Amino acid sequence: MVFNATVASAAATDLLYAGTDFTSLNWLEKQWVAWYVWIGNPIIATGLMSFLLHEIVYFGRCVPWIIIDAIPYFRKWKLQPNKVPTPQEQWECTKQVLFSHFTIELPAIWLFHPLAEGLGMETYQVPFPSWKTMAPQIFLFFFFEDFFHFLAHQALHTGVLYKHIHKLHHKYSAPFGLAAEYAHPAEVFILGTGTIAGPMLYCYFTQNLHIFTVYIWISLRLFQAVDAHSGYDFPWSLQHILPFWSGADHHDFHHMAFTNNFSTSFRWWDHIFGTDDKYRLYKEKVKAAKAAMKGSSIEKQKEIEREILEEVEKQGLLAEAEVERSAGKAKDE
Ligand SMILES: [Zn+2]
Ligand SMILES: [Zn+2]
């Protein structure tokens, strides 16, 4: 039998969009309809779009950081200026991330549409919800993910879970954008739950969620994750505008010191539970050292800065060894 694309498109339009007034749709909504009609099968259309969105947003957001790493001018804003990733390191990391996207995410993504539909989420439907509907939903997903991550990430820093799962993500004590998703598959599953479960639960209880809103949320969450691993703190970075935003400054310290700063987007939980004590002490130390060094040569200032960074990293390595030792003990008992 020869596949007839026109007949298939007409059938998909009838099935999905009977009674829809296409003239009232905006440009993006029209493209949305065209995509679902062109693919003809909503499960494949949603799965493919989800996968492409992830790849384009993730790697697209990494590109500026790769360029910035290649330009020495930007070093003055690098949080650990003594550690700039080499192109080889970045390529090795990219290969690993791509491998897990294609072997784990791609086979699982076809479940996304049936799961979303089962929970009552709108997928192929148009028009999209208004900004007034989407904005509070997206904030709620940020809030849920951040708190979930704060708890789950701390669990991943205990003995066996660290040794066998989270250690991989801590390969880079000075992270870079591409390292955001460099993690064990079990970690992707555990921490990815924080990103996906918020919309799923929200949809289950309210029956009022469009997948378009979920895509905006996931795109923003990817931006957050890549930027937090970028290794740069610019004067115009978001945390200088919104003081409760974590940003690279917060998460870079987590990778360097191995402790503190477990949340993703916001600083408040680490602050409330005191899991940012070492970080705050470090910031004060840097500030005091900078004040004391006023007038001394740039070389001298850089040397002192390097000494402080090396001391934090040394303590971090000791803390990591301690966690791994506890995993060994747990096995022996
Ligand atoms: Zn960690
Ligand atoms: Zn990280």
From TrEMBL:
<protein>
    <recommendedName>
        <fullName>Fatty acid hydroxylase domain-containing protein</fullName>
    </recommendedName>
</protein>
<dbReference type="InterPro" id="IPR050307">
    <property type="entry name" value="Sterol_Desaturase_Related"/>
</dbReference>
<feature type="transmembrane region" description="Helical">
    <location>
        <begin position="34"/>
        <end position="53"/>
    </location>
</feature>
<keyword id="KW-0472">Membrane</keyword>
<dbReference type="Pfam" id="PF04116">
    <property type="entry name" value="FA_hydroxylase"/>
</dbReference>
<feature type="domain" description="Fatty acid hydroxylase">
    <location>
        <begin position="139"/>
        <end position="275"/>
    </location>
</feature>
<dbReference type="InterPro" id="IPR006694">
    <property type="entry name" value="Fatty_acid_hydroxylase"/>
</dbReference>
<dbReference type="GO" id="GO:0016491">
    <property type="term" value="F:oxidoreductase activity"/>
</dbReference>
<dbReference type="GO" id="GO:0016020">
    <property type="term" value="C:membrane"/>
</dbReference>
<keyword id="KW-0812">Transmembrane</keyword>
<dbReference type="GO" id="GO:0005506">
    <property type="term" value="F:iron ion binding"/>
</dbReference>
<keyword id="KW-1133">Transmembrane helix</keyword>
<dbReference type="GO" id="GO:0008610">
    <property type="term" value="P:lipid biosynthetic process"/>
</dbReference>
